[in-house]
Amino acid sequence: SQKIEQNSEALNIQEGKTATLTCNYTNYSPAYLQWYRQDPGRGPVFLLLIRENEKEKRKERLKVTFDTTLKQSLFHITASQPADSATYLCALDMGGFQKLVFGTGTRLLVSP
Amino acid sequence: DAGVIQSPRHEVTEMGQEVTLRCKPISGHNSLFWYRQTMMRGLELLIYFNNNVPIDDSGMPEDRFSAKMPNASFSTLKIQPSEPRDSAVYFCASSLSGESQPQHFGDGTRLSIL
């Protein structure tokens, strides 16, 4: 079965720096990968999607890369702000029918 | 725009009792998902529906769990009888049909079984 690994330890960075979060997976490469943000007491919120034939996707200060050779996706937040502090989850499709498998998430803390 | 609405937000009940969680998806969305989130196991898909029909319930832990979607605007997840190990946050999400569609989550029901 597909296994997804995200850094379980919190990532602490200073405001203005770039945050880089990692999502590694085993087994087959998914057709697409999604990133979500989750705040305490709230449900996950969709941020970005990247397909297997796309190397990179950008949205404002967010950038996602997808390397099917390394079986890895990187999620970058440039010019980070304290409001970016949250847990970030990656999710992989399971080969169709909209079935996603989520990683356990990485908590990001941005200090002023 | 109303998002996905879940009720109740919190539920505390004693072991053995029946628990019913409710979800109203976003209007026009025809896929609905039930997830469970715990610290140990993260976010796990329990079951999902497309056009009110259950497509995959392989994530449902055991027969004590059941889910229904009687119409396009309402779904329930029922646990009977409940056990302390069922304590978790349960999320409902909805989306448009089709691969790669983003899922829109409600704010969850925090369930505690004593």
Question: Could you describe the 3D structure shown?
Answer:
- The complex is a heterodimer of chains A (112) and B (114).
- The termini of chain A are far apart.
- Chain A is built from no helices and eleven strands.
- In chain A, strands 2, 4, 5, 9, 10 and 11 form a six-stranded mixed beta sheet that branches.
- Chain A is globular, with a radius of gyration of 13 Å.
- Chain A has strands at residues 4-6, 11-14, 19-25, 32-38, 45-51, 56-59, 62-67, 72-77, 86-93, 100-102, 106-111.
- Chain B has 114 residues and is an all-beta fold.
- Helices cover 0% and strands 54% of the residues of chain B.
- In chain B, the strands form two sheets. In chain B, strands 2, 4, 5, 6, 9, 10 and 11 form a seven-stranded mixed beta sheet that branches. Chain B has a four-stranded antiparallel beta sheet with strand order 1-3-8-7, with no helix packed on it.
- The chains are: A mainly beta (112), B mainly beta (114).
At a glance:
The complex is a heterodimer of chains A (112) and B (114). Chain A is mainly beta and 112 residues long.
* Biggest sheet statistics of chain A: 6 strands, mixed
Structural class of chain B: mainly beta
Report the span from N to C terminus of chain A.
Answer: 41 Å
Strand content of chain A: over 45%
Structural class of the secondary structure composition of chain A? mainly beta
How far apart lie the N and C ends of chain B? 36 Å
**Helicity of chain B, as a percent range:** under 10%
Compressed to H and E, one letter per element, the order of chain B equals EEEEEEEEEEE
What's the number of extended β-strand segments of chain A?
11
What proportion of the residues of chain B form beta strands (DSSP E)?
Answer: over 45%
Radius of gyration of CA atoms of chain B, rounded to a whole number: 13 Å
**Number of DSSP strands of chain B?**
11
Oligomeric category: heterodimer
Q: Provide the residue-averaged pLDDT of chain A.
A: 91
Mean pLDDT of chain B: 95
Calculate Rg of chain A over CA atoms. 13 Å
